[in-house]
Amino acid sequence: MEHFLRSLKVFWRSERLLRENELRLLSQKIQCNALAGLVALFGLVMLSLSVFFALVPYMGNALAALSVGGTDLVLAAVLVAYGRSLKPAEEAKMVKEMRDMAVSDMENEMIKAEAEFTALRSEARKFVRNPVESLLPVVLSPLVGAVAKGMLSPKKKASKSTPQ
Known about the structure:
This protein is mostly helical. It has one domain: Helix Hairpins. It contains four helices and no strands. Helix 3 packs across helix 4.
């Protein structure tokens, strides 16, 4: 049972660490994607302005707004790519291995407990169906031992009481 509890504690801690790591990673990804969305929105505004300015005077301010908008979109794409490229830390692999080992240990302990329970249940059924047969070896063994001692005791007394 102690082994099962230790495995359960290892499983619980490893799951907690994995969830904390996943939450941190997800938070970073969300922050990067939110910033990328903000930059992309600003880029879209700038592109819209650049099209507007491109139509009005045919050059000048439009090229500046177009280049700023294009740069913003490239930056947004880089941030999205970086956010998608974030991977779990190396320690997460180790924690997953520990969790898997703990789960395996718990499964083994549960299999052992189930086998013990099945054996106990079959013994209980056997006792309920035929209690005399179940108790006979337990009662018969001490009884035979006592009879054997009783049979040997008079012989020893008889051999000791006869003078030589």
